[in-house]
Design brief:
The protein is mostly beta strands and about 120 residues long. About 5% of the residues lie in helices and about 45% in strands.
Length: about 120
Amino acid sequence: MQTGDDVMIGGFILGGSKSRTLIARAISPSLLGPNVNNPLPDPILELHNGSGTIVASNDDWRSTHEQKIQDSGLAPQNDKESAILATVAPGAYTAIVRGVQKGTGVALVEVYQLK
């Protein structure tokens, strides 16, 4: 991942007619290892709806919904990683990951539907 328009974008569509609760995560510092030697030091995660409006954003996952994210079993390993807990209506969404202070490196974006 780079800076400017060169960010990570993951898209997903929720079908049906009922809202759902999701956890979206931007994982990076914990990826450091033999196969990833340049993880993004501090990712920021934004969740956008199909109109492009930001539904939620997070930098450093413990800053919002910490206990609920921990209770889900999906808490990131590193405090600098990002996680969003949100209840969203059916539709198209994008999860956008970028680096704090124009940081660059490897990252992973994930979205999980909670029961």
